[in-house]
Amino acid sequence: MGVLSKAGRKRDPYLELIMNVYPLRPIKSAAEHQRAMKALRSLAGDKRAVATEFKKVLASIIETYERESGLQLNTTHVSAADVVRHLLAERDMSVNAFAKDRGISQSALSDMLNGKRDWSKSVIITVANYFGLNRGLFLR
């Protein structure tokens, strides 16, 4: 059940994300693309169902802009470990801090990132959900 606003109307958390994080409309410029990417990154780790729905729609809008603008990169030679390391660095987060925050064994995560061990299902789910990644990235 929603919370009532000062005016006595029920608050809509999804609408609040649209109004306060990023308006869900087609991206028409590089500047809008950067704002959309920043908005998506700001919601990493937000596990609310409403945020998950919002991230899916925003990611789809971003993907459409990138495809139509020729911005999509060939990622066939990029490993899951490369992506995770990049996302951790982008957030100034260490492997240790991330592992502790997510309840993952630091040594296991480090081994997975360094190719010394295969990605476990539980870590794939945890990392993919946190960063909004497709789980298939970890299986190639």
Describe the 3D structure.
The chain is mainly α and 140 residues long. The protein has two domains: 57 residues; 60 residues, Orthogonal Bundle (434 Repressor (Amino-terminal Domain)). 57% of the residues lie in helices and 0% in strands. The mean pLDDT is 89.
Kindly report the average pLDDT value. 89
- Summed up, the helix count is 7
Structural class by sheet pairing and helices = mainly alpha
CATH class of the largest domain: Mainly Alpha
CATH topology of the largest domain: 434 Repressor (Amino-terminal Domain)
CATH level-4 homologous superfamily of the largest domain: lambda repressor-like DNA-binding domains
Per CATH, the architecture of the largest domain is Orthogonal Bundle
Largest sheet: none
What is the gyration radius calculated from CA atoms?
17 Å
Percent of residues in β-strands: under 5%
When the domains are counted, the total is 2
State the share of residues found in helices, binned by percent.
55-70%
Oligomer state of the chains in this structure: single chain
Order of helices and strands: HHHHHHH
